[in-house]
Design goal:
By secondary structure, the chain is mainly beta. Among the domains are: about 120 residues, no CATH class; about 220 residues, no CATH class; about 120 residues, Pnp Oxidase, Chain A, CATH 2.30.110. Helix content is about 5%, strand content about 35%. The chain is built from 5 helices and 51 strands. The strands form 11 sheets. Strands 1, 12, 13, 16, 37, 38, 39, 40, 43, 46, 49 and 50 form a 12-stranded antiparallel sheet that branches. It has an 8-stranded antiparallel sheet with strand order 2-11-7-8-9-4-3-10, with no helix packed on it. It has a 7-stranded antiparallel sheet with strand order 17-36-51-48-47-41-42. The longest helix is centred in the N-terminal third of the chain and has 7 residues. It is globular and about 80 Å long. It starts with 10 loop residues before the first strand and ends in a 5-residue tail after the last strand.
Length: about 725
């Protein structure tokens, strides 16, 4: 008989990135955000923002924002009001006033999404105020899961299939503790009212104490522990999407949108470079305002005014290099594609940026190498800023392209940065990473992605989806609520999760294991079964039943076939101070991110209902989770066969690269793990510490008269990780 109770084996846990949503006016030729007429309530200090327009595969489609109802409660909003004849007040512009708004209600009314925000807008919207050209609304990343534009909203809960992109495999998790909601109940004794509690009042809502232990099969969780990632698609040719594209305008660190993906028709000027349409690296020497633009090659094309219209021989295969000019697509040109299939949500965009960024705050010497030119055997202080992100939405209106990505960018990128595209395939075609299956080359990765992970200014937040059910059925598959086959599913999404500490350990008995501790800010709960017409609004990610049930989908979810085996202790080598240590019994690397949650005085006059996905509009939950100082320590137990580590400890030697002649450090600590198999390019992890002190090296005399064991305690300044696998982005 099927179970009638909730069971652990019927529980699903997945996770995903959090990213902001940039909503520019008219991004699809029709989109507007609107301050709803008559919704400004100065008593409750609230306003309502609604939407119109948009398009399929973009954040807003026919006025519906692609998020489950109630999911955005607690998220923050800022406005940029840059229209020349604004209807919104510039007092609502973040750059002018610093005003940030909090979403306290997220609903769909009259076939359009409505967001109730506090405080109220400065602009009087007794009549509707619509966004105008250059106005932008942005929902900030923290506690905002990456959207899934394929979700379906319906007024009836049982007919909805709402979801976010929490579709990633957590890992080979042994145990997990969720940051379950706890009410900080305040209890007051009152003089003269006896010994019992007189008054009880609920205080903060706490979602702390999350933790899981995983046998590491890749390095992705180190991204959430350290914070920054640069990538290198080392194998194969990146797909150009029928032609290389470039960004228009500078792209800022933290951006979740890349504007303009093409080349195009626009006003050109002397000095601009043209490729395509018969031109090759042609510099414009003159502009004839009546008929022609003349290039350095002596070739010309017909023009209208100073705006070039390229002929039919110019296509999306051509490259436009832009100087100071701004380009948009000619209306007759199609958007980017791979193998004649249009780029869309689920594909990946690569920012091909060879400029460098610092990966360390401070170094005593300046001769260090640059990744990926220098690898894990070298001292590194810089990395090239190439990034890969999953596309969650895309707009290509009249050739003017805009891409939304699943995770804010780690680095700033200059105007005209080249972008290319990748797509997972069932094999290694068109640059797709793929694990070889033949016995002779088992474990060999074709088109691997290499990444360096390091700590800098911040760490990313993530969302974790947890669903529990009584039966092994998906309640979105037409099951009648309360019927014998009803799974009685309960779904929660823990939002605004950040790692507080981690422990990476291995010994001679098991796999490389990672324990991650994290807290959450808010919890979305599917309350569809409390509505009038009962059912589940949220369409859960049943990982191997539907989310990752094919070769391609498994790659997309981070558990590609044949990559699921963990790194074992016998896959590893450990080098300390330039010497490979053969007598290591175990090691423990501990790290702290310094993340703390902060509650702010942001009370709002909100209703309380059992159908609220986030109770009390999140006003009792933390509004910030801020990183503090990082701390690392390494403990390594060795069987002593040489006094060298004791001598280094007692002299308090500072181990760092003091040889300015090269980028190789004989003093570094390197923990290296490479999975077994054939071929040189296999899954690997290198954990590198190149500036540290050995602070303890005890030599206790064992009672059993056996070998001496010493537990070295080592304090590194920084840690970085270099990994090679099939993940596009951690």
């Amino acid at each position: 008989m099927p179970s009638t109770v909730y069971k652990g084996d019927l529980t699903e846990v997945t996770f995903g990135h959090e990213t902001g949503v940039v909503l520019p006016h008219d991004y699809a030729g029709s989109f507007k955000f609107i301050a709803k007429a008559g919704s400004r309530d100065l008593v409750k200090d609230t306003s309502i923002i609604t939407f119109s327009g948009g398009a399929a595969s973009t954040p807003v489609n026919s006025g519906i924002l692609a998020f489950p109802v109630g999911m955005l409660v607690g998220s923050k909003i800022v406005f940029s009001i840059k229209s020349t004849s604004p209807e919104f007040s510039t007092d609502d512009d973040f750059s002018v006033s610093g005003r940030t708004y909090t979403i306290i209600k997220h609903a769909v009314v009259s076939s359009a999404t409505e967001l109730t925000i506090t405080p109220a807008l400065k602009v009087d919207h007794s009549s509707a105020k619509e966004s105008k050209t250059n106005d932008v609304m942005e929902i900030l990343p923290f506690a905002t899961p990456s959207m899934d534009v394929s979700m379906t909203y319906n007024a009836t809960a049982s007919s909805s299939a709402e979801r976010v992109l929490t579709d990633q495999f957590v890992g080979l998790v042994n145990t997990i503790s969720l940051p379950e909601t706890r009410v900080d109940l305040k209890r007051y004794h009152v003089v003269g009212l006896g010994r019992d509690v007189a008054v009880q009042v609920p205080g903060r809502f706490l979602n702390t104490g999350g933790s899981f232990e995983s046998n590491m099969h890749n390095a992705r969780w180190m991204y959430y522990c350290l914070g920054h990632e640069a990538t290198s698609a080392t194998g194969g040719t990146l797909q150009t999407g029928d032609g290389t594209r470039a960004t228009t305008g500078n792209v800022s660190s933290g951006s979740a949108v890349i504007q303009n993906i093409g080349g195009q028709t626009s006003d050109l000027a002397v000095g601009d470079i043209i490729n395509g349409g018969g031109f090759t690296n042609a510099t414009i020497q003159s502009v004839d305002s009546s008929t022609q633009v003349t290039a350095s090659t002596g070739t010309s094309v017909t023009a209208s005014g100073t705006s070039i219209t390229f002929g039919g021989d110019f296509s999306t295969n051509a490259v436009i290099s832009q100087g100071d000019s701004s380009f948009t697509y000619d209306g007759g040109l199609s958007g980017p594609s791979i193998n004649s299939q249009a780029i869309g949500p689920g594909d990946y965009v690569v920012l091909v940026d060879t400029n460098t960024t610092d990966i360390k705050t401070y170094r005593e010497t300046a001769s260090d190498g640059t990744w990926p030119t220098n690898g894990a055997n070298s001292i590194l202080s810089k990395a090239q800023k190439q990034e890969i992100r999953r596309i969650v939405a895309i707009s290509d209106s009249s050739g003017s392209g805009r891409i939304w990505v699943d995770d804010p960018l780690n680095f700033s990128h200059a105007d005209n940065t080249t972008i290319k595209f990748l797509r997972y395939e069932a094999d290694s075609t068109r640059g797709s990473p793929h694990m070889t299956t033949t016995n002779t080359n088992y474990g060999l990765i074709t088109n691997p992605v290499e990444r360096i992970i390091f700590s800098r200014t911040n760490i990313p937040s993530f969302s974790m989806e947890v669903s529990v059910r009584r039966r092994d059925t998906d309640s979105n598959e037409g099951t009648t609520d309360g019927s014998n086959s009803d799974s009685k599913q309960l779904t929660r999404v823990f939002r605004g999760c950040k790692v507080t500490s981690f422990n990476l350990t291995a010994d001679t008995d098991a796999a490389l294991r990672l324990t991650v501790d994290f807290d959450s800010a808010l919890v979305y709960t599917d309350t569809g079964r409390l509505e009038g017409t009962k059912g589940d609004r949220y369409d859960t990610h049943r990982l191997f039943e539907d989310t990752a049930n094919t070769e391609v989908k498994r790659k997309e979810s981070g558990i590609a076939k044949r990559t699921q085996k963990p790194f074992m202790f016998y896959n590893g080598t450990i080098t300390v101070a330039g010497v490979q240590v053969g007598q290591v019994v175990s090691f423990n690397l501990n790290g702290s991110t310094g993340v703390q949650q902060y509650y702010t005085v942001n009370g709002a006059n909100v209703a309380d209902s059992e159908t609220d996905q986030v109770p009390f509009a999140g006003t009792r939950n933390p509004s910030l989770a801020v990183e503090g100082k990082t701390e690392y320590d390494l403990e390594m137990e060795i069987i002593v066969d040489d006094p060298v580590f004791y001598h280094k400890m007692r002299r308090a030697v500072d181990h760092y690269d003091d040889d300015t002649s090269d980028a190789v450090d004989s003093d570094m600590i390197r923990l290296s793990f490479t999975k077994q198999g054939a071929g040189a390019t296999r899954e690997s992890i290198d954990i590198v510490m190149d500036d540290y002190f050995i602070v303890e090296a005890p030599l206790p005399i064992p009672e059993d008269k056996g070998p001496l064991r010493s537990t070295l305690k080592i304090l590194p300044k920084t840690v970085h990780v270099i990994a090679k696998d099939t993940l596009m982005h951690s």
